[in-house]
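Hi there, hope your week has been kind to you so far. Thanks so much in advance, here it is:
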Amino acid sequence: MLEEIITERARDGATVVFSTHVMQHAERLCRHLVLIARGRKLFDGTPEQARRSLPRHLLLTSRGDPSALPGVAAAEPEAVFEGWTRWRLTLRLGAEPQAVLEACFAQGLVLRDFDQQEPSLHDVFMHLVGADLLPQQDAA
């Protein structure tokens, strides 16, 4: 019911300030985010800008090694079966999954599947403020 009220008020043009540590709520309700940890502003922007601040990942199954494809920062094999290898790719920041897929076709890399993994706001939150949330250790 609270989400309905917030959504309705925002749709009517009201500015709604919503504070939460539950990033799933922020993904559903917020068009602009400010992430703060220990009194410091760590991020200020849209949810899409927040997700774009982390590298994207791809899961693909291929007959060849995708590590040299343009935009690929790292490629880790996860499983091998019947001549196919399941890879987890980390893309360079700003690299587009579509461009990697096009490079697969251009280079003749045979694919069985290709799955884009977008970072969630929870991933962004933990990346930016995760270490700040841990109790600070006093130097002895």
